[in-house]
Amino acid sequence: MQAAQIYELVNEDFEGVNSLINAQLSSNVPMVEKIGQYIVTSGGKRMRPLIVILIANALGYDTQKNALKLAAIIEFLHTATLLHDDVVDASDLRRGKSTANAKWGNAPSVLVGDFLYSRAFQMMVELESMEVMKILAHATNVIAEGEVLQLMNVKNPNVSEAHYMEVIRCKTAMLFQAASHSAAALCHIENQTQSLRDYGLHLGLAFQLIDDVLDYRGDASVMGKNVGDDLAEGKPTLPLIYTMAKGTHAQQELIRGVIRKGGLEDIEDVLAAVTESGALDYTATLARQHSSKAKDCLNSLPDTPYKTALESLCSIAVERSY
C-alpha cells in the first residue's frame, strides 16, 4: 500500500484531526496562533497521529470518541519538540521552509513550544484516561532526557553504538512508541498493548536510522533540509560511529576530527568515508531489521486494510527519500 492510499483510507478521520488541531491552536495571543499555525501546517508526514488513527481503526474502536483527540495530542507533542529542537540545533531550514526560530527568533519559538506542550496536556485531561496520561507523561519526560543526552554527545567522537541507540530510542522512537501504546490503551485492548507498544518503538528506530542515512545520501531539495546538518553540528550519528569503529585508520581519524570541530569543510571526504566503510549500508540494514520487527508486532491484529496500512508504514519508513 502506497502512502497516498494509506492517507486516503483514513481521509475522513485525518480531516477531523486537522480540524481539531486548528481549533486547539486558538489563543488570545496572536503570535502564539501565528507560529503554531506556521509550524503545524508546514507539510510534515504526520506519521505519529496516523499511527493512532490506524491502530484505533484496526482494533474496531469508534475513532470519533477520543482517537482523533489523541492523534491531535500526539501531533502537538511532536510539534513542540520540533520547535525546541530547531532552537537547540540553531536550524534555519525544515521541510523546505524557514524554521520558526529563523523567522521569529528563539524566544518566541521556545515559548510557543511550551504552549503546545501545555495545550496537549489540557487535551489529555479531557480523554479521562489515567493510563493514556501515564504513557504520554512518561514519554515527554524521556524525550526531554533524550534531547539532553544528544546535546551532551555533540562534538564527542567517543560515543558508542549502544549509547547512540539509547539516544534515538529516547529522542525519536519514544513518541512513535507513545502513539501506538496510547492508542492501544485508549481502545482497552490489554492483550495486544505490549506488541503494539513495541510496534511503535521499532518503527521509530527504523525511521531515525534512515534519517541518519539520508543526512549523507539524501537530496536537500527533496528532504527540505540541508544534507550534512548533523555533521555540521558535530553530532556523532550511527554512520559516523560505524566508520570510526570499522573504517581505515585514515577514515577514523578524519571522522574523529570532523566531529570535534563540526562544520562542513570536509563534507566530501566524510561522504566518501561513510560510503566506502559500509557505514551507510550498515545503518540502512539495521533500519530494515527494526522495520521487520515492527511488522511482526502486528501479527495478532485481524486482517483488515488498516493492518495492511500499518505494515506498509514499516516499508515506507525505510524506503523513503525524505
UniProtKB/TrEMBL annotation:
Membership in a protein family: Belongs to the FPP/GGPP synthase family.
Reactions that this protein is recorded to catalyse: 5 isopentenyl diphosphate + (2E,6E)-farnesyl diphosphate = all-trans-octaprenyl diphosphate + 5 diphosphate
Regions that span the bilayer: none
GO molecular function: all-trans-octaprenyl-diphosphate synthase activity; metal ion binding
Function: Supplies octaprenyl diphosphate, the precursor for the side chain of the isoprenoid quinones ubiquinone and menaquinone.
Cofactor: Mg(2+)
The species this protein was found in: Oleiphilus messinensis
The keyword Magnesium belongs to this UniProt entry's keyword annotation: yes
Keyword match Zinc: no
GO biological process: isoprenoid biosynthetic process
UniProt-listed InterPro entries: Isoprenoid_synthase_dom_sf, Polyprenyl_synt, Polyprenyl_synt_CS
Sorted UniProt keywords: Magnesium, Metal-binding, Transferase
Protein's name in the database: Octaprenyl diphosphate synthase
Enzyme Commission designation: 2.5.1.90
